[in-house]
Design goal:
Helices cover 41% and strands 7% of the residues. The protein has 21 helices and 15 strands. The protein has helices spanning 18-28, 33-47, 66-72, 74-80, 95-107, 112-116, 118-131, 134-146, 150-154, 251-254, 261-274, 291-294, 311-323, 349-356, 377-388, 405-416, 433-443, 448-466, 482-490, 494-503, 505-510, and strands at residues 53-57, 60-64, 85-88, 194-195, 198-199, 299-300, 307-308, 337-338, 345-346, 365-366, 373-374, 393-394, 401-402, 421-422, 429-430. Strand 6 (299-300) and strand 7 form a beta hairpin. It binds a DNA duplex through helix 14, helix 15, helix 16 and helix 17. Residues 51-114 form the BTB domain. One of its GO terms (molecular function) is zinc ion binding.
Length: 514
DNA sequence: CTGGGGAAGGGGCCC
DNA sequence: AGGGCCCCTTCCCCA
């Protein structure tokens, strides 16, 4: 939309009637508008309202608004465009200093604490230079010159281009592991910020510097800032797109990822041949597994080879094994640590202790953001990641990011076309095991396919009288549902078979179970 | 409109 | 503590 020059309050050519309009608009201007707007934005920031970016500085997190950061700093602008999570080099800006920087951005002023202390001002100047906030650089210089320290500073360690900066305020020693902290005020913009008094909040058991999967970091370094080895958290961040919204897959990687179809087929065959690396766990096909003999009993007891249609039945069977003395089980109790509250037992006491927490009435690990409680610290920290939008695991092919490695592994099958989970009833293949399991419910007792299968058995028994290749009715346990059965054995398409079966209600009625 | 599949988010819990 | 897997659930798309 093009705004007429006069409405933008820009200078008008003399003699133009716009002069009058401009003067009128000046008269209509609310002088405090900008100030009021900034106050509102700062208020929103402190409450975390509409904040859309998190800035990580060492062990502190700050929430802010991308628009405001982008309008204030060229450097921050380049970062917020692509990421909701930004990590700043804590050697160039400490949490306390960044807090002052953020205050300046949202208020246009420096607090007296900063104005009075040269080391703080020097560090602030360095940070402002690093972040390319011209107004703050000017302000810091002016203040330092006023106090006569600027000249002295330029030759000192605290110079704005010095790599090593004072950590102001001095960091307090790492706090001892604290008992579960009370939930944070969810409206705080600053989650872990170390204020002038040192870390104002416990780390909540969440170490943001935890390892992350290796990956390229292509985050830009601001002009004038020192290039350095990527901080671990940099590697969590989405690589900047190069020539498109998502990076092109590496040529080297194309053979193991989203390569051409031929390559994918070759890969599948290789896997089939070698039975290699990623053998799907659970009910999928494995060594010694014979789907034909199991029919839809896809849950197999490994020791005895017996198949069951549901995990519940398999579990009951396994428990029966545990009570009796099943053949093939090694002597002695392999799980000697028994839970006093339930029937479960474990190999080691630590796992038992962990399990026993599931029986506790109060869960020991609360989320410091929402207060939700968990029985395991790991579950809580994982949960925290979803609050913070931390997705360390990135897909090389499409750039999509995940909170868990396992999710990425699952996701990669979309690109590879791999579908390792096969339904032993209908032959359908799935990339996600959970989708196979939900699919199996359809085949399971009470599922829609279950009644169809029952009908298939009965119908096939009837057909067996007239059809020589269906003489062995006991083999029907391994037959597909009726539609597939009918399609295969009567030479119909599956759709046609379903249509026929649906229209022939009399036949189904006649052979329905008594 | 409904059911099924694909894809993904999140919690539980064992190793 | 972190990895890995299971389970439940949701959302979207399509037939």
């Amino acid at each position: 939309m093009i705004i007429p020059r006069e409405l933008r309050g820009l200078p008008q050519a003399s003699g133009h009637p716009g002069v009058e309009v401009s003067a009128m608009l000046d008269a209509m201007e609310v002088p405090s508008h900008a100030r009021h707007l900034l106050l509102q934005l700062n208020s929103q920031r402190t409450k975390g309202f509409l904040c859309d970016v998190i800035i990580v500085v060492q062990n502190a997190l700050f929430r802010a608004h991308k628009n405001i950061l982008a309008a204030s700093s060229a450097y921050l602008k380049s970062l917020v465009v692509h990421d909701n999570l930004i990590n700043l080099d804590h050697e160039l800006v400490s949490p306390g200093i960044f807090r002052a920087v953020l205050d300046f951005i949202y208020t246009g002023r420096l607090s007296e604490a900063e104005l009075g202390l040269e080391p703080s001002l020097a560090a602030l100047l360095a940070a402002a230079t690093y972040l390319q906030i011209a107004d703050l650089v000017t302000l810091c210089k002016k203040q330092l010159k006023r106090s006569g320290k600027y000249r002295q500073l330029r030759s000192s360690t605290y110079g704005p281009y010095s790599k090593v900066l004072p950590c102001y305020p001095p960091r307090a020693p790492a706090p001892a592991p604290a008992p579960p902290a009370p939930p944070l005020d969810t409206h705080r913009a600053e989650l872990y910020a170390a204020g002038p008094q040192g870390p104002s909040l416990p780390l909540c058991g969440l170490d943001l510097t935890k390892k992350s999967p290796p990956g390229p970091s292509v985050h830009g370094t601001p002009e004038g800032a020192t290039t350095q080895a990527p901080d671990p958290i940099y590697r969590w961040m989405k690589p900047e797109p190069q020539g498109g919204p998502y990076p092109e897959p590496d040529e080297d990687k194309s053979s193991s990822g989203g390569g051409c179809e031929e390559e994918e087929e070759e890969e599948e065959e290789e896997e089939g041949d070698t039975g290699s690396s990623e053998e799907p766990p659970g009910p999928g096909p494995g060594p010694g597994y014979e789907p034909e003999s199991l029919g839809h009993n896809v849950y197999v007891c490994i020791p005895c080879g017996q198949g069951f249609p549901s995990s519940e039945q398999l579990n009951a069977h396994v428990e029966a094994h545990a009570e009796g003395d099943p053949p093939g089980e090694p002597p002695g109790d392999p799980r000697p640590y028994h839970c006093g509250s339930c029937h479960k037992s474990y190999k080691d006491p630590a796992t038992l202790r962990q399990h026993e927490k599931t029986h506790w009435l109060s869960r020991p690990y609360p989320c410091t953001i929402c207060g939700k409680k968990f029985t395991q610290r790991g579950t809580m920290t994982r949960h925290m990641r979803s609050h913070l939008g931390l997705k360390p695991f990135a897909c090389d092919a499409c750039g999509m990011r995940f909170t868990r490695q396992y999710r990425l592994t699952e996701h990669m099958r979309i690109h590879s076309g791999e579908k390792p989970y096969e339904c032993q009833v209908c032959g359908g293949r799935f990339a996600q095991q959970r989708n196979l399991l939900s699919h199996m419910k359809m085949h399971g007792p009470g599922g829609p396919a279950d009644s169809l299968l029952a009908v298939a058995r009965l119908g096939a028994q009837q057909l067996a009288h007239a059809s020589p290749f269906l003489s062995d009715a006991s083999a029907l346990d391994s037959l597909y549902p009726l539609a597939k059965f009918t399609a295969e054995h009567l030479g119909l398409s599956q759709d046609k078979a379903i249509e026929v079966l649906h229209h022939d209600g009399r036949l189904i009625d006649r052979f329905s179970p008594a």
